[in-house]
């Protein structure tokens, strides 16, 4: 059983967080955080070099982590950018670099997926808008009842359920811690609330038997939230509901793993906020709740009239949803805080508001106390009456300091500034005690007796790493806490990495990986650490001199690589190289803040208060001892904080941790807006980048065997094994595949004269690659080598392919040419043969026709010649008939045989076969359309439709007979097409 009674609850720091300009300046300040300062063991090949990666990493970046050198195709092999949103685990992106991680987160955020694993860490992006379906009781039930919640989508409930099942499984260490971190507004409180609701819901649904008791506890656990938030949260420039303290909530489970109780431990309440608020910021919510929610009667009682302006209540006109007084009162009631006690608390708070309006005039004479300003006396009286102390005593305590001179005590008037400081100190003191009392009451109300619970789940909601323009003791403490948590995280993450390697059969450890121990040594080291020196300075009980303290720091710590100074700066300061960046701390006021002195007169006065509650708050009396002397041992803020942190770390070390990193995607708290520069800074500050560094120190690239062989299989000459892999399609993890992978890797290693791998084998330090059971583990350098060899192998293959292709093309072309020649020859011979045959046929026909025609012509001529006189005969048969036509000057020679032909064809209707010479003559004249001299003779012929179409007689030329249709078959075809004879011309011409 683990006793969870932690040290002092409130760190009691007089912080100035509100003072600090809340503009983050990590990127400006983290110059030169190198391997030296962080002592990270890095491969020389992967040593950081100055370069901007475009993601706001500024001048500190790790080229080995950037994927800019990867060409598009390799990038797409390693990771499919379109599918980035499907990656549930950031360490699975290839290669694991800040830019790929950032892209993956952005891709997921754009599709409204807000949770992503990062190895053993859960990254939660703040949606800045309600997503009710994500946190409904049904979803809780689903995760709780799932057989394997890890297989579900990443969710805060996976983490919650995992922790719960670890307890059920009783695997050592059984107790669990859920560490939720992130910067202001990232969603830590929201996440913690979700976790509390989850455990309350599953507790309520687990057993009907102890239902009443569980419901009571569950209600109290949930009711503690509004009370803690009302008193410990405030509206800041970064978050309307910003927790101004860190907390560790312990949910106590009994042997049946049922929630039986809870307790809360708080850290470092920002009590300065009571008296000083940043521009645009507010005091703690509870004051505004009172001002807005109190009844008239209560106002009167608490002396807070509606229209009264209180100096410590800026921006009172701004209304937030957190300003719900009745909810706080109801929660206090449920928690068991009696109405009377509530009234006492509110009276005290109202007293503080009135105290804030008490102001002083400077005193003309140093030996005289300062006077109150005009209206201040009324506020002082009101404050005194609300605190149940006498107004005179209050005034005296604020104006006069008690000096101890031996056994004598002397009253010394304070300056105006000192009066103000004493007033502020009183307010801070009271508020811090009220807050502590509330936390103690809540614990008393929720905490189960130590015998009734045996295991716990702790929820740690702490400030994230802080770096403002001005940083002081608060930031030093917060960043120290973050360094401690980071060291714890790194150890845990390395263990997780180690486990994965072991599961892959890789015996290798990060033994030489050095974490942030040197930075922690600088802060907490004894006797030469910043805190030790600071405490010593407080104990010296001398006036705090910043320059003097700086010189001391420089003298004692100059050898530490994590410490540096800007020698040209006028403000005394020192710079610490934290894991998340360099932060400059101003020394001015640091010693005083660490001392956090409380004037004993104030404690005395409060111890004498008539208000029982106020009196009890100071009953332990840490002012003077019974002899009236001050305690010699000063318990400084740093000591208190360090002690409570040490007990927290002890608890964390004894539990199984689960880390959740909340990320604020944009500083304006706009819904669904992702700003890369903001996110990368936070990834760095919350250690995700460090996780990546660790990953890079091991094997940042992990490729499943089959994928590996598909890409790099061609490198090896063992083509047979590759083919066998392809053909047999073996399962990933089989020896065949692993041996094929090893063959490829050894091929590359051999070329570089590096020691070959053995499978199964171990990785020695300095080696570049390991073949696991299902994956090949590669360094970036090995990936480069593989890519180079792949490129070379591809070039060789390409040359071979080109040669083969060219030869193939050449051969193909030759074969085609040969075939074409043969086809051409065959076609030509076929055409010639065909042509010859046609010619033969044509010649035969022509011959036949010609012979027939000649015979007919001869016969016709014979017939015609038979009918003419000898002279005519001679004239027709030999030289042709010469006629003197009246219309022509010159005689026209008509060749006898064409005229005969014309006569044979023309007078088909009207010219009878028995025509006489004169009739023929008349017929001829009619054909020629000549007027016959002696008588008018009209012959009607159809010569224009068939036979002779026209007969044209030109002077000095032969008559041309134009026939419509040739009487001869094939007469339109000239045998050799070399010219046209008169005959053919006559025959071929058409009208
Ligand atoms: N998961 C979520 N779903 C919806 N809104 C959320 C979620 N997480 C955070 N928010 C919103 O972001 C705001 C800031 O969250 P929260 O107060 O938890 O931040 P924080 O990290 O605790 O800040 P601080 O350190 O200042 O207390 C919340 O008020 C809420 O509106």
From TrEMBL:
The organism sits in which domain of life?
Eukaryota
Is Ribonucleoprotein tagged as a keyword?
no
The annotated regions of Basic and acidic residues compositional bias extend over: 40-54
Q: Which keywords has UniProt assigned to this entry?
A: Actin-binding, ATP-binding, Motor protein, Myosin, Nucleotide-binding
Q: Which PROSITE patterns match?
A: IQ, MYOSIN_MOTOR
**Organism, as annotated:** Paramormyrops kingsleyae
State where ATP binds.
182-189
- Region (Actin-binding) residue spans: 645-667
Protein name, entry field: Myosin XIX
GO BP terms, alphabetized: actin filament organization
For this protein, the record's Gene3D superfamilies field holds: 1.10.10.820, 1.20.5.190, 1.20.5.4820, 1.20.58.530, Kinesin motor domain (3.40.850.10), Myosin VI head, motor domain, U50 subdomain (1.20.120.720)
